[in-house]
Design goal:
This protein is α/β, with parallel strands linked by helices. Helices cover 36% and strands 30% of the residues. It has a five-stranded mixed β-sheet, sandwiched between helices.
Length: 132
């Protein structure tokens, strides 16, 4: 499967990686699989690493549906890391859709993994951090 999630309970973090060519259908399947896991906790944070994704074949309407999935609590943080310019742009669209929905967690898109981890692990010191 192009998406793989590891739940790190001690860190209260879900690390999801996407590799290769990704589709909107696979993104929705990833959401469903997370919800069904016994160790899933919606108060955890998520690091979505798309640095090894080569393409994301998703329509704007599919992306909107994925963004509307009520996975995480309002206190959670979801950092998305993407280096491919097209995938980065789609991740920013996801961020906008989540923001417009008015429900759910804080989402921010990054181009560097270290910055994303810092934002998740140190929320007080990075409130005004802008994605790089």
């Amino acid at each position: 499967m192009p998406f793989n999630s590891v739940i790190e309970s001690k860190r209260r973090l879900i690390v999801t990686t996407g590799t290769g060519v990704l589709t909107g259908e696979e993104g929705l399947a990833c959401c469903r699989q997370l919800i069904e896991r016994k160790d899933f906790d919606p108060t955890f944070n998520q690091l979505l690493d798309l640095t090894h994704a080569t393409r994301f074949d998703v329509t704007p309407s599919e992306l909107q549906i994925i963004a509307a999935q009520p996975l995480f609590s309002g206190a959670s943080r979801r950092a998305i890391v993407a280096r491919n310019p097209t995938i980065f742009g789609l991740a920013r669209m996801f961020e906008s859709y989540r923001s417009l929905s008015g429900v759910g967690e804080h989402v921010m898109v990054f181009s560097e993994l270290d910055s994303a981890v810092e934002w998740i692990e140190n929320p007080q010191s990075s409130e005004n951090l802008f994605a790089s």
